[in-house]
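Our preliminary data section would be incomplete without showing what the modeling component actually yields. Below, a chain of 380 amino acids is followed by its predicted structure, encoded as tokens that our downstream tools consume directly.
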Amino acid sequence: MSTTDHYPGVRRIALPLAMTVLTVAGSIGASRHMQLDHRPADWFMVLLLLKASLSLYWLRTHVIPVLWATVAATLIYMLMQYPYGPVILPFIIAVFTTIRLGHRLSGWSALAALYIGHVGGRMLLGINEQGVYQILLVGFCFVLLGTVSELARAHRDRVTAADRTRREAELRQASQERLRIAQELHDVVAHHISLINVQASTALHLADRQPEQAVPALAAIKDASKEALVELRSIVGILRQEDETAPRQPVAGLDRLEQLVNRTSMAGLEVHTVIHGEARPLPTGLDRAAFRIIQESLTNVVRHAKATAATVRIQYGEESLVVQVDDNGQSLTGPPTEGNGLVGMRERATALGGTLATTRTPAGGLRVVATLPLAGQTHV
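Predicted structure:
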């Protein structure tokens, strides 16, 4: 880090001081050694140079007043026939900065004012008339200055637009990541807490009359709570942006389906698994979404359906993966109501370009069908 980064005021005052030294020394030198036919240097010439140069200190905060201060000082300097030299530099810097910052009308107006004031003023005052070639050359230089300033403004606008687009993309990505993590937290907590709740109820029911049968329920609670802690630790690690070479446990996917089925069965729900087609590795995002949809569906069955059995069907197709979960819950009619769980499952499916539908089975239980397209998914 440079010294000027520690002292922003140093950078702000460096330009006007440098311009002051350059314009005053250059103009006095020209007056004494080169342009002897011009008005000799005096205190008023130095005052005009100081006004034009030192006003640049306020260029960033009061760009328009500083611009016209340099126009006035430069025009008076020229019409009083002081030696030509670096007096024009503060004006060039002021015009360039004004147009680059987006004050285009003011910048071009200042160019026109100095040009017309200089050419017209010399004619009115009867000062050495300039040839047509000189007048056109000065005009070309002013137009060139304005054009270069416009190019700098356009480049600045492009960079600003690109930065804004990048920031918006980062915000969208962060929002999507927060949503994904929220879904993961919901699925993990809801599933394991539901299993723990069921097993705890079973253990309490058996504790007095059949204490030996309460042991499996307590073991299931231990396993469910342990796995919940592991998954939560992994998610919290993502939130903390921990630099790990690998996650603390594999990303949830269909390869953990058997564990999920066993855990759910221990809660008293008989789960059957049916696979259609040849099982094969899937893209990570799709694999995780399929697993979480099955997990959330079974969690809803355990918590709400009052069912004794559920069937998980997975169909590996050429273009899509279809996941279906049916339960034999209470015989009901009409469309099922949707809570946060079903909304979260639908969001997972639609995020991958798929669909999720909930209907009633012929027996009145709940059926969840998710169709997840394989096209466009990448293996991560």
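Residues 132-207 form the longest helix (76 residues). Residues 1-7, 242-250 have pLDDT under 50 and may be disordered. Preliminary results of this kind motivate Aim 1 of the renewal.
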